[in-house]
Amino acid sequence: MYFHSELFITFTGKHMEPIRRKPTERELKLLELLIVGSKMTFPEKWKQSLKVSPMDDGGMGSLYLFVDEENNENRKFVARVSEHQFVDKDGVDVIASLNVDEEGQLFELDVWKADFSELNELPDR
Questions:
Q1: Which residues, including other chains, have CB under 8 Å from residue 106's CB and lie 6 or more apart?
Q2: How far apart are CA 26 and CA 19, in angstroms?
Q3: Locate the DUF6984 domain: which residues (predicted)?
Q4: How far is CA 115 from the centre of its chain?
Q5: Cα–chain center distance at 40
């Protein structure tokens, strides 16, 4: 799986930059939980420099993760390093996975809801 971060092509054929933003408080809490569970070491400043970009996953909440602004082109999924299961507000099981790229850097927060519906809420713990 490749993610070319330079541009997206919209349905009108226009090129546009991917939307990158700071993660929400709940996204950060979930990422912290997954990082602790991963037994991997990430740079201490990952939270300060982290930007996220929503994935087109039908509203389940998956995010591309960007820690290093200089190295974002042609990144490739290499490994799932941590998972956390929780139940959404509607009672449907959800699995959140932390994925890294070929350099061991944060790559994706992959959120999968068992019925493929939109995620109502990330866990707050």
A1: 31, 42, 46, 50, 65, 67, 98, 100
A2: 19
A3: 21-123
A4: 19
A5: 17
Q: What end-to-end distance do the CA atoms of the chain give, in Å?
A: 30
* Residue 4 tokens, joined: 């070319």
Express each pLDDT in 19-69 by its tens digit.
899 999 999 999 999 999 998 998 888 999 999 999 999 999 999 999 876
> pLDDT, tens digit, for every residue of 38-52?
989 988 889 999 999
The residue type at 1: M
Residue ranges of the domains in the chain?
2-113
Phi and psi torsions of 53, nearest 5°: -135, 120
3-state secondary structure of 37: helix
Element (H, E) at 24: none
- Give the Cα separation of 49 and 122 in Å (integer): 21
